[in-house]
Amino acid sequence: MKFRPTAGASRIAIVGRPNVGKSTIFNRLAGRRLALVNDTPGVTRDRKETHTQMGGRPVILLDTAGLEEADPETIPGRMRASSEVAIRQADLILFVIDARQGLTPTDRAFANLLRKVPAPILLLANKAEGRGGALAAMEAFELGLGTPIPISAEHGEGFGGLLDEIVAHLPEMPEEEPEGAEKPLRLAIVGRPNAGKSTLLNALVGEERMITGPEPGLTRDAVTVEWSDEEGRVRLVDTAGLRKKARVELELEKMSTGASIGALKECEVAILVLDATLGLEQQDINIARLAEREGRAIVLALNKWDAVPDRNAARKGVEDVLQTSLAQLKGITVVPMSAATGQGVDKLMPAVRAAHERWNRRIGTGELNRWFEVVKDKHQPPLVDGRRIKLRYLTMPKARPPTIVVFGTRAEALPDDWQRYMVNSFREQFDMGGVPIRVQLRGSENPYAEDDK
């Protein structure tokens, strides 16, 4: 497994100390609100990237954690190490300072670090609103990194000139990607805080891409990584832990939760990561139900499996809860694994690919109706208000998720228990475990038709 960025794309890293406006610049350049923006210093902890275009050139834009002088074992120290990886991988670096605050010793220290980097550097003096701000930006000349570019990310000032400078440092426009080029599988990693989601992402992509540690809630934003497994491209999103709604209090945590839910809505398959030492708890069930409501295929990752003392009891406990509380996702694939040691991680992506194939699968009308005749013969639809429901045929107009449309006289009155019976039989017959199934009823009432009482 390896990273596979967009062909010919230039990597542009936005770096600087905390709270100078890097994420606001990232959002402006990306053309949409992707990174969390808040006055709290250190909101961005992991490298966040997005694929976009500038001047017709493909670009991978990277938002990074604030650069701070800190012990490597601390959270700021781990954040700095992550940012330094982005600096080493970048083709162009945007070094951001706060013109309003002026140069700080930290700015000067990191300017010294950047002077040793071979990639070209553009010095951005942010928060330089108006004429006074532009004059204040000139102080940054003394860093020896070229002419400062005064901008205001909050107000959008100076971005025309900034884009011109960026494009001037990019290679010539590549040939267009051919039609029918492979699209990445959209995959989200979701779960409660401290279940091991970021450790799992690092294990999958084979590098320390995300900040990890024993502290709960390290990941604050939804972070996207594009890479490849043996089957092709994957756009993988690590999300902040989803806690119970009553416990989501701070504005920043509300924003993190919103970003996680947004990632879940945009994905095709969700990996729900559980702490196997705790089992399948109510919040895990709530997250799985949310994914099902959004129509996403789900794979269950039983993480920290190496720390489970009685594995048979743990597995049975999870299966019992799935049977009683997640019947709408019957047959969901469960992968015991340890993201920290790598045990079982190799089985996860094959399970994801299989779930994605089921989620995309459409059954032909002939095959579908041959099965449906058997289903009706085994268990006839009941009488409702003394009148017979006469089901005539099915179609499957769409997948993603699989959707069955039932046609027949008074089909709209079909009881829920018979619909569940039909869906369970459909799952078993066509191997649709762990995939949401949608049922639409198309009834008819013809006053001239013979009554089927």
Rg is: 26 Å
The rounded distance between the terminal residues' Cα atoms is 61 Å
Globally, the shape reads elongated
**Number of helical segments with 4 or more residues:** 12
**Structural class assignment:** alpha/beta
What's the architecture of the largest domain, going by CATH?
3-Layer(aba) Sandwich
Low-confidence blocks of residues: 1-7, 35-45, 215-220, 250-255, 447-453
Q: Outline the biggest β-sheet.
A: 7 strands, mixed
CATH topology of the largest domain: Rossmann fold
Strand-residue proportion: 15-25%
Within CATH, the superfamily of the largest domain carries the name P-loop containing nucleotide triphosphate hydrolases
Identify the quaternary structure here: single chain
Q: What is the mean predicted local confidence, pLDDT? A: 81
User: What is the CATH first-level class name of the largest domain?
Assistant: Alpha Beta
- Give the total of domains: 3
Strands of the widest sheet, in order across it, are 1-9-10-8-11-12-13
Using DSSP, what is the number of strands?
A: 18
Order of SSEs, N→C?
EEHEEHEHEHEHEHEEHEHEHEHHEEEEHE
Helix content: 25-40%
Could you explain how this protein is built, in words?
The chain has 453 residues and is of the alpha/beta class. The chain has three domains: 2-168, Rossmann fold (3-Layer(aba) Sandwich), CATH 3.40.50; 185-360, P-loop containing nucleotide triphosphate hydrolases (Rossmann fold, 3-Layer(aba) Sandwich), CATH 3.40.50.300; 365-444, K homology (KH) domain (GMP Synthetase, Chain A, domain 3), CATH 3.30.300. The protein is 32% helix and 23% strand. The chain is built from twelve helices and 18 strands. The strands form four sheets. A seven-stranded mixed beta sheet has the order 1-9-10-8-11-12-13, sandwiched between helices. A six-stranded mixed beta sheet has the order 3-4-2-5-6-7, with helices on both faces. Strands 16-17-18 form a three-stranded mixed beta sheet. Strand 14 and strand 15 (387-388) form a beta hairpin. Pfam families: KH_dom-like, MMR_HSR1. GTP 1 binds at residues 16-23, 63-67, 126-129. Belongs to the TRAFAC class TrmE-Era-EngA-EngB-Septin-like GTPase superfamily. EngA (Der) GTPase family.
